[in-house]
Design a protein that fits this description.
Helix content: 25-40%
Number of helices: 16
Shape: elongated
Bound molecules: histidyl-adenosine monophosphate
Number of strands: 18
Mean pLDDT: 93
Radius of gyration: 28 Å
Strand content: 15-25%
Number of domains: 2
CATH class of the largest domain: Alpha Beta
CATH architecture of the largest domain: 2-Layer Sandwich
Structural class: alpha+beta
Amino acid sequence: MAEHSFQAPKGTRDFYPTDLALRRRIEHAWRSASVDFGFDEIEGPTFEHLELYTAKSGEGIVSELFSFRRAGGENDYALRPEFTPTLARMVAAKAGGLPTPVKWFAIPMMYRAERPQRGRLREFGQWNIDLLGLEGAAVDVEVIGVAILALERLGLTARDVQVRLSHRVVIGRVLAALGVAAEKASDAMTLLDRRDKLDAAEFQKRAEALGLSTEAVQRFDAVARAAQPLAQSFDALAKSIGVEVDAFSALEEIRVAAEHAGILEWCTVDVGIVRGLAYYTGTVFEIHEISGAERAIAGGGRYDGLVELFGGPKMPACGFGMGDVVLANVLSDRGLLPKDPATLLPQPDAFVISAGGDADRFVAPLVRRMRMAGLHARTSYKATRNVGKLLSDANKVRARFAIIIGAEIADGRVALKNLASGEQQWIALDDVVTACARIACAS
Ligand code: HAM
């Protein structure tokens, strides 16, 4: 009987080969979209000083930290729950010497001590895109555009997902128009952000505590629910929540930029999107599956003060994080993941088979030559020389060719069998590597 039986910690995942192949497919879309938009990849430490997060990440994240102290040590550390503080620290440390704009991406693992549930784990992968050193709606839209390109490459369309956008300045102006005093604006934003987690009575109680009249509470509630396509004019929305239309001017700029960038149809205005993270200063957005049933696929926005807060120069910045967990759920629900994940595993170029006898000694040198030529070559570990059985093994691993070494090796010839078409040709042993390389290149 086993002495110990261990399970992976709650909220973590084991990645068996096909699971990891799926994750790599997502990461490939993230990486290729980043590179095509001119972003360079970076990485940072898995853990940081605890204060890096208590400084500005906001209550939500701080309450979910995995924090620890080295045995006998004095410093407190935390596993990274997000990447933005690390990135801001890295930029602040070198800001003078970095070419601007800074365009960086990262695909790190993150750790949050959340209660595990659908779309929410304690360890997850998160793609980060961040563009620093430039202001303006066109920059915010470029950042959003990178996310959209990756989602498109994974097969999603504007009918599957929407970028739900708001703007902290717009929210501030709307709140002021509703009668929220300047010193209560931050509490009001927190309340807006938590709107979906509270029942109506609790929401009303908290809104009244902000000094809002009953009528203003209703309008405040309407704000939390106000959403419309970005393409639509703000006139009716402004009227319905009782503010001047120019309160929406920051979002109007985003609309124009999104139209120029060709991504307008992907975007919805959702005034209730505030984002829990304390460092955002301007545009804020989340990407959601269209029914709204799943948690956010991504979240981000403009955070113009963070680099300076970490001792760097004043530096505007905008970025987002996209998690692999929700995204994989959405892709799976939409039938956008392969039915047989084994098809995502690397496909061998050739499977070398010996029919026995003298042929055996030619297998290892041929496999080596193939690998030296950059080809993916495999052979059997089995003792059998039953060619039929070995061909079936070659098919199981989806090899494109079987190279069968039989009695003809006496004349220096081997059989090259195309496993998809069944076509077979005789070829000189000396030419087989080149022939396979040519075919692999062509396909
Ligand atoms: P966030 O909204 O906390 O933003 O996270 C972004 C995304 O990471 C979420 O939309 C979700 O897909 C994924 N995510 C977050 N927590 C979990 C979890 N426990 N399990 C699975 N997935 C999760 C940030 O982290 C900001 N630092 C993003 C950013 C980058 N802002 C500017 N630059």
